[in-house]
Design brief:
296 residues; alpha/beta; 46% helix; TIM Barrel; 11% strand; 11 helices
C-alpha cells in the first residue's frame, strides 16, 4: 500500500451551473457539490477554469466557495485566490476565502512564466499573507502559463507550496517537475498521460473530466494506492473514453453528462460553449453505454 501526504490524490473540479439568463443556479450548485463530494475525492476545487472563474464576479466566486464548503460533506475545499487585478485586491480575496473556511488556496501562475524570478517573488510575497497551504495552477487562460521546473522546485522547497496543477501536456515536462517536487505533489491535468505520470511519480490529478466523472478518478487512485496497477489501468482506459466524450464543447458537454447522470443542471455557459443536437446525441450514447457497462 503506497502512502501519500494529505495534499495528494484526486482534486475534483466544480462546474458552475447557470440559468438561461446566465445567472448562477445556486440551488443546482449545492446539489452538484454534494453529488461530487459523495464520490469521496481527497479534495474539491471550487472556482477553477472549469468553473468559468474569469467570468464570475468576486461576490459570485465567494458565494460559490461558501456553498462548496457548506455542502462538501467534510471533503477539503480549495479555491483560486488571486484572480483580482491588483495585488492588494488579491490579498483581500485571500482573507475573504479564509473567512469562508476553505482548507487551502490555489494561486494561478498569472501569465508571468516568461519572468521566472519575478514570478517567484510575486508568489512567495502573496503566500506570506496566509497561513493556509497553497497549490499552484498553470491556468491556460493567463498565458504564458507553464512554470519552469526550476522555479517550481524553488517554490516547493519553501514548504508553503504543496503542489502544482501541471498542464504542460508533455511527459518530458511533467517529469521535470516530478524530479524537483520534493515533499510537494505534482498533480496531473493531462488525461492521455495520466497513467504514465503516476508511473513517473505524480501524486494526484486535477483534470477537467473530474467535473462529471469523479468516481472513475477516485477508483483509479484507490487502485493505484493499493499498487493494483492492472485495475488502475482499466479505470484509466475508462477515463480516456470519458475525456474523448466531453472534449468538444466543454464545459457544456460535462454539464450534459452530469444532467444525464441525475444532477439537475442546465448546460448554459458564459464562455459561449454549446452543444448541437448531434453532440447531445453522441454524449447520450456514451453515457448510455457507460451505464449499461457498469462504468457509471
Amino acid at each position: 500500500m503506497q502512502q501519500f501526504n494529505e495534499f495528494a490524490g484526486v482534486y475534483t473540479l466544480l462546474l458552475t451551473p447557470f440559468n438561461k439568463d446566465l445567472t448562477i443556479d445556486y440551488k443546482a450548485y449545492e446539489e452538484y457539490v454534494s453529488w461530487q463530494a459523495s464520490f469521496g475525492p481527497q479534495h474539491l476545487f471550487s472556482v477553477c477554469g472549469s468553473s468559468e472563474m474569469t467570468l464570475l464576479t468576486l461576490p459570485e466566486r465567494l458565494k460559490c466557495v461558501s456553498l462548496a464548503v457548506k455542502n462538501s460533506q467534510g471533503v477539503p475545499v480549495f479555491a483560486t485566490a488571486n484572480l483580482q487585478r491588483e495585488e492588494q485586491a488579491q490579498i483581500d480575496e485571500i482573507k475573504a476565502l479564509e473567512q469562508l473556511g476553505v482548507t487551502g488556496l490555489v494561486f494561478v501562475t498569472k501569465g508571468m512564466c516568461d519572468t521566472p524570478d519575478e514570478q517567484y517573488d510575486y508568489l512567495t510575497s502573496l503566500a506570506s499573507h496566509t497561513d493556509l497551504p497553497v497549490i499552484l495552477y498553470e491556468f491556460p487562460g493567463m498565458q504564458p502559463h507553464l512554470m519552469h521546473a526550476d522555479v517550481y522546485g524553488r517554490l516547493a522547497a519553501t514548504g508553503k507550496f504543496k503542489g502544482i496543477k501541471d498542464t504542460t501536456c508533455f511527459l518530458t515536462e511533467i517529469k521535470k517537475k516530478i524530479a524537483v517536487q520534493g515533499e510537494s505533489d505534482v498533480l496531473q491535468a493531462n488525461i492521455p498521460f495520466l497513467y504514465d505520470a503516476y508511473e513517473a511519480g505524480a501524486r494526484g490529478v486535477v483534470a477537467t473530466p473530474t467535473t462529471c466523472g469523479a468516481d472513475l478518478f477516485v477508483k483509479m487512485w484507490d487502485a493505484w494506492c493499493k499498487e493494483d496497477k492492472e485495475t488502475a489501468k482499466a479505470y484509466y482506459e475508462q477515463i480516456i473514453l470519458l475525456d474523448n466524450a466531453i472534449d468538444s464543447g466543454f464545459n457544456a458537454s460535462a454539464k450534459y453528462v452530469c444532467r444525464l447522470r441525475g444532477v439537475n443542471m442546465n448546460v448554459y455557459t458564459r464562455t459561449g460553449a454549446s452543444l448541437s443536437p448531434a453532440r447531445c446525441r453522441s454524449i447520450e450514447a456514451y453515457v448510455g453505454w457507460a451505464k449499461s457497462n457498469g462504468v457509471f
